[in-house]
Structure formats: structure tokens, C-alpha cells
Amino acid sequence: MKERKKEAPICPRCNGKDVRSRIRTEDYWCRRCGYIGPREEFIRKEDEVR
């Protein structure tokens, strides 16, 4: 299996993976619950998952 270069963003509120980036503000927003936040909240480190 290939390793992904970028980790998929995950919504910190609802754990949804349907996250879109907002180009102008560089925020991410979740299409499932409508949460908007900075990139750091959505990109999880591998240490946190395991």
C-alpha cells in the first residue's frame, strides 16, 4: 500500500471526513456539521490517532 503524503483532514467536532478547504481564509470547513476552523484543528498527528 502506498503512504499518503498529506493526511486527510478530519473534523474535530463530528469526526467527519468530508472537509473542504477555504482558499481565501486558509480555514477548513466540515460539510457534515458546518464547523469552521484553522488547519491545525483538522490535521491530526499520527500520535493522536494511535
UniProtKB/TrEMBL annotation:
Protein name stated in the entry: Uncharacterized protein
Organism: viral metagenome
